[in-house]
Amino acid sequence: MFKFEEKIDSLKKATRSGMSLRTFFEKRFDKFGLDDQFKILEMFSDLMVTIDNGNDWSKFLYYNPEICSSIGKRINLKTNLSDNSISNETKSRIVESYFNIVFYCFYMDENKKDNLKLACDYINNMDFRGIDIKALSNLSMIILKQIKILSSEGLSLEKVKSMVLFYFYHSQRSKYPKAEAHGKLRKRLDKKAQKLFNQRYLDLFKIVERHKDVISRVTFWGVNDGHSWLNGWPIPGRTNYPLLIDRNNEVKPVVKEIVKLFK
Q1: Which of the chain's ends, N or C, has fewer CB atoms near its CB within 10 Å?
Q2: What is the pLDDT of residue 166?
Q3: Concatenated DSSP letters for the chain?
Q4: Which of 193, 172, 171 is nearest to 247 (CA)?
Q5: Sign of the C-alpha dihedral, residues 81, 87, 92, 98?
Q6: What is d(CA 229, CA 66) in angstroms, rounded to the nearest whole number?
């Protein structure tokens, strides 16, 4: 048996010599162990764009049923999740893969309900420590998309809430440790930027008010400024203030003006 690194080297040589990624996944992918399959999918996530015009794993599996079948046959949740030699990181990827396969790839699992229950039990007792933030984000997203089904199989909504909050907190800490340590985290926008911020929100909600007969709600991507995905984007390390609730969970003054629009 080749070591994983040797297999990857041989794969890279094969792709350079003309073997397409599609050919590799159709002909050779099944020869790798489950954990190595996860590593391959992660290593080649950017190259997968050329296969299905998108780097979303579930979409990739959907359009490549032979890979879906290969992973599906190897995932034995009862064995995998009870194996103490498998890390939390790998177990979380196993559960995420199983959800992707069951919900998006129509993999025919004869014990679907039993396995969903096992996966939910695992999440209910999951220790988030030791799990990569990106992996936790991916797992959280697929859980939230299928929350009704999973809650009916015993998934704790309190645990899901804890998972999401854990992700928000630690993703922000990992993104901005230097800025906060050196005191570069500005507390607020300057007056000119704040005036523009207020006007943009008022203009937006004036449109909402005009069409309130067909708009039932507005959803924000983030709880407060500290949880926004705009922090550090497009400029790494930059602090952003895009939401209506600040980092201290205080409602910003412009909210009162927005409320007045609807009275």
Answers
A1: C
A2: 79
A3: ---HHHHHHHHHHHHHTT--HHHHHHHTGGGS-HHHHHHHHHHTTTTTHHHHSS--HHHHHHH-HHHHHHHHHH--HHHHHH-TTS-HHHHHHHHHHHHHHHHHS----TTHHHHHHHHHHHHHT---TTS-HHHHHHHHHHHHHTHHHHHHTT--HHHHHHHHHHHHHHHHHHHSHHHHHTT---SS--HHHHHHHHHHHHHHHHHHHHTTTT------SSSSGGG-TTTT-SSTT-----SSB-TTSPBPTHHHHHHHHT-
A4: 172
A5: negative
A6: 35
**How far is the C-alpha of 39 from the C-alpha of 49, rounded, in Å?**
17
Q: What is the mean pLDDT of the chain?
A: 76
Strand partners, 245: 251
The DSSP symbol for 235 reads S
* pTM score over 0.90: no
* Three-class DSSP category at 234: coil
